[in-house]
Structure formats: structure tokens, C-alpha cells
Specification:
Two copies of one chain form a homodimer. Chain A is mostly helical and about 130 residues long. Chain A is built from six helices and two strands. At the A-B interface, helix 1, helix 2, helix 5 and helix 6 of A face helix 1, helix 2, helix 5 and helix 6 of B. The structure holds a DNA duplex (30 and 30 nucleotides).
DNA sequence: CTTTTATTTAACTAATTCGTTATTTAACAG
DNA sequence: CTGTTAAATAACGAATTAGTTAAATAAAAG
């Protein structure tokens, strides 16, 4: 699996609120599938498939103990996401540099009508409800 | 839009490698849709829809300049992801030794299978290919 | 062996996603 | 007006996703 594929699988897994809730639960400790399923108004097979998605993304691992399959969080996959985010972190942590100026100008133009509007012909948009 | 919905939309948008590549390009500066589309072996409508997904997730914003619609990165949505990650950051940043102890203790305190397998009989798995 | 408990797989459906080509809208140039 | 360029929308199909119920599997209990 390439790095890109891994990232796609991880983001895709995290896109579902049920799966994020499962991860939150597993952050408190290893637990069984039935325990994981309890808070959700959802059938066991549905939970089982969510767990499969999380496992495929490397976000959880499953053990075996008698007829239980305890699941535990695997943080390494989340580190992959964190690393990817690193590239963009500067955009909200540091000054926005030249982007900053552009945004200020844009905000100003939204408060006031822009001066480029020499010909104020307002055409009605077609797809907009009246 | 709730926080959960916003997170879902953001993760879902980031799950596609084309969209991540678009963000990487926009990190270098604002550009037009045609410029964004150039590196991809994909039709313009396909790119247009990817941009719509990114916009809906709040990851980009679109301006208007004559017949061009310049797109720019919106880092705030990524900060949302970073904040979510924060909850789990300890799991890969800190030592796992202490965590292992914590998890073991937690696991022991939670409800466990009432009895352990005293006699581990090894049966051949049925559905497994040789 | 039979039953119970925990979990997965099978089969199906509805909704969504991702791509296509064809058409349409919008702004501008001559 | 006509034509060109930039981008979006319409209409369509294939693939994936997320849920369901019913059945299968695995280990343990009686």
C-alpha cells in the first residue's frame, strides 16, 4: 500500500462519525465488539463492518480471547494524518503572509461595494429561487 | 452544521488523493480552475466537482475575477482536524510503557470474560486456504 | 451432544460517489 | 451581434458505501 493509499484509507475511515466515536471509546482502553456496539442504535453486523474499515485503515487491531475479539486503538495511523497535516500547519499557526493581505482586501470588498463595479448592471441569477 | 458534520465533511474531502493534490497546489498560492486541472488526466467537470467538495468542507474558498474563479486554501478547516487529532496525539507521542500499564489495569477493571480458557484446544480453522 | 454467547459473513437494497460527455452560463473581445 | 474562453450544470452509469435481516462460525457452558 502506498503512502497515498494509506492516507486515503485513513481519512475515509475517519469520515464517519460512528467510527470516530468507536475510536474515542477505544482511547479509553481495549474492549469487545459487543461493548463497542452498545451506545449505537445499529445492528451488530453494521458495527462489525465499521470495525473492519478501521482495521483496514490500521486504526485498530483485533485480538482473540475465547469467543471475544477485543479491539484496541492503533495510534500509528493517526500519526500519518498528523504528519500530512504538518505541511499545512503553518497556514493557520503562522502569519498568512501574502495570503493575509488578499483576505483583508476581500473582506473589505464585502463590507463595501467594490470599486471595480463601474457598470452596476445587476443580472438576476437563473438558478436562484425568487 | 454541527462540529461532527463539519469533521465528517472535512475528512471525507481529504480522503481523495486528487483533492489532496489540489490542496497541495493551492498551498503554493491562489489559482484558477483550469490551472488546477492541468496536472490531472481528468475532465474539467470532474475537477469542478472536486472543488465543490473542498468548498463545501470549507477547505477552499472561491473568488471571482472576470470569467475566472480563483481558488484559495482555507486553513481553518484543517485546524479543525488538527484539534480533533489532539485528543489522540498522546498515544503516539508519549511512551507506550505507561499506556500499556494503564490499558491493562483498565481492561482488568472492566468486565472480562467470566472464565479463561484453561485447556487451549487447537482446532483447525475451516475457511482458511492451505 | 446441545445450547448459549460473541462475532462474522451472505445477500440484498438504498444512497452516495466519481467519472464521463453534452449542454449551459458568464464574461469578455472583435 | 458573433465568437472565444472559463467554469458550472445536466444527465447518465459504474462502483462503493452503509445499513438491514438471516444464516454461519467459533468457543464455551451445561
Amino acid at each position: 500500500m502506498t503512502q497515498q493509499e494509506r492516507l486515503s484509507a485513513t481519512f475515509s475511515a475517519l469520515a464517519d462519525p460512528t467510527r470516530r466515536a468507536i475510536l474515542a471509546k477505544l482511547a479509553l482502553g481495549e474492549t469487545s465488539v459487543t461493548e463497542i456496539a452498545k451506545p449505537f442504535d445499529m445492528s451488530m453486523p453494521a458495527i462489525s463492518r465499521h470495525l473492519k474499515v478501521l482495521e483496514h485503515a490500521g486504526l485498530i487491531a483485533r485480538g482473540r480471547e475465547a469467543q471475544w475479539r477485543p479491539c484496541r486503538l492503533q495510534a500509528a495511523a493517526l500519526k500519518g494524518v498528523d504528519d500530512w497535516l504538518g505541511t499545512y500547519r503553518q497556514f493557520w499557526e503562522e502569519s498568512f503572509d501574502r495570503l493575509d493581505g488578499y483576505l483583508s482586501a476581500l473582506q473589505a470588498s464585502q463590507k463595501k461595494p467594490p470599486r471595480k463595479n463601474k457598470k452596476p448592471v445587476v443580472k438576476p441569477k437563473k438558478g436562484v429561487a425568487p
